[in-house]
Design brief:
Blueprint: E1 3-7, H1 16-29, E2 34-38, H2 44-48, H3 60-65, E3 73-75, E4 80-83, H4 89-95, H5 105-110, E5 119-123, H6 130-138, E6 141-147, H7 150-154, H8 156-168, E7 175-182, H9 189-202, H10 216-223, H11 228-231, H12 238-251
Parallel strand pairs: 1-5, 1-6, 2-4, 2-5, 6-7
Antiparallel strand pairs: 3-4
Helix pairs in contact: 1-12
Bound molecules: adenosine-5'-diphosphate and magnesium ion.
Organism: Merismopedia glauca CCAP 1448/3
Protein name: Chromosome partitioning protein ParA
Pfam family, one: AAA_31
Amino acid sequence: MGKIMAIFNQAGGVAKTTLAMNLGYHLGKLKQRVLMIDMDPQASLTLFCGLEPFDLTQTIYESLVLEQPAPIQSLSDLKFELIPSNINLSGAEIELVNADLRDFRLRDAIAPLENQYDFIIIDCPPSLGILSYISLVAATHILVPIATQYKAWMGTELLLRTVKRIQGKANKELKLAGFVPTLFAKANSQDCRALNAISEQLSLIAPIFPALPRSTAFADAVEEHLPLALYQPKHPAVAPLTQLANYCLKKL
Ligand code: ADP
Ligand code: MG
C-alpha cells in the first residue's frame, strides 16, 4: 500500500506547503507515483503549482462535501499530480460539522486512488480544525516542519497532544515520520539555539531531518511555479530535500 503523508503543523508560515511541493517533486524524480492534495482553503499549493484557484470549478471541496470523484490534475513538469483547492474549502469546515462519517471523508475520497500512487502527500491548513483533523485521520504518516524559532517551538506540545489523541482513537496506524527544521538561518544565534533544542528534545520522539536553510530562493522558485531543484539545481537546500525524499522512499 502507498504511503499517505500529512505535512502538518498548526502554525502558519513554517514552510509546510513549500516542503510538500519540494518533497513531492523529489519523490517523483525518484520514479515514485506521487499525488499531492491541497487541503488548505488558502490554496497556496494550488497557486505554487501554477493553477489559478478562482478559475477551478472542481476541487477537493467537491470530493469532501459532495462526495464527487477527486479532480486530479496532471503536472508532469513537477513530477506529481494534484488535487487542487480553493476558497470554497473554507465552507467545508461548517458543512461537514454534522455530516455522516465526517472524520473519514478524506480517507474515503482517497481510498479508490490509493493503489495508483506510491505517495499521497496532504498539505494541511494552518489550524487544528476539521480539515486538519480529517487529513490526519486519512494519513499513514505525519511529517512536521518546524521553524527554528522560539515561538514555533512552543507550539509542538499542542501538536504532539493532537497527534496522540488521533492515534488513540480515529487512526491507530498513524506514525510520526519526523520533524523537518525549516527557515534556519545559521548566522542567527536564536535559530541555532532553537535547532539545538529541537534536536535534543524532539529526537526522543521521532527522527529530526537535516534543516532547510532560510533562503529567498524558495520564494523565487515558487513565483516561477517550480521546485527549488528545477529553479536553482545547485542551491544548498537541494541536498537536504533529496536526503529526505530518499529516507521516505527507503525507511517509511
Ligand atoms: P506554510 O504552508 O506553513 O504556511 P509556506 O510554505 O507557504 O508555509 O511558506 C511561507 C512563506 O515562507 C512563503 O512565502 C515561502 O515562500 C517562504 N519560505 C518557505 N520556505 C522558506 C525558506 N527555507 N527560506 C525562506 N523563505 C521560505
Ligand atoms: Mg501552507
